[in-house]
């Protein structure tokens, strides 16, 4: 059998890892073994970070909506309940953006939802005699 020399292939593989490790501190960007470990760890952190970012933004949106609703004497949970009952399909991201950029528009949404729920409550009222 002939001898297989894989110098070029091994060098390409190592260069690829070292390229990914560029910008890391100390030997983590210079030595292959440590840089390989750090690249794997960095990729794992970036994967988890992408999932974590979604949670953080949802928390931010809820906080902004809560602040806007509390300034109108309503809690976040009551506001979301009124939204669901009035069949308004605006997601939290859009609501938070409206609350920050256009407070009068958010006030308009709030009053419409509140008026709609009041009229539904009156129509569902049954008088027992």
Automatic annotation (TrEMBL):
Keywords, comma-separated and alphabetical: Plastid, Ribonucleoprotein, Ribosomal protein, RNA-binding, rRNA-binding
Database matches in CDD domains: Ribosomal_L20 (cd07026)
Keyword Flavoprotein applies: no
General function of this protein: Binds directly to 23S ribosomal RNA and is necessary for the in vitro assembly process of the 50S ribosomal subunit. It is not involved in the protein synthesizing functions of that subunit.
GO molecular function per UniProt: rRNA binding; structural constituent of ribosome
Organism: Kumanoa americana
Similarity comment: family membership: Belongs to the bacterial ribosomal protein bL20 family.
Coiled coil segments of this chain: none
Gene Ontology BP annotations: translation
Tagged with keyword Aminoacyl-tRNA synthetase: no
Signal sequence annotation: none
Name of the molecule in the record: 50S ribosomal protein L20
Gene Ontology cellular component terms for the protein in this record: ribonucleoprotein complex; ribosome
Pfam families, per database record: Ribosomal_L20
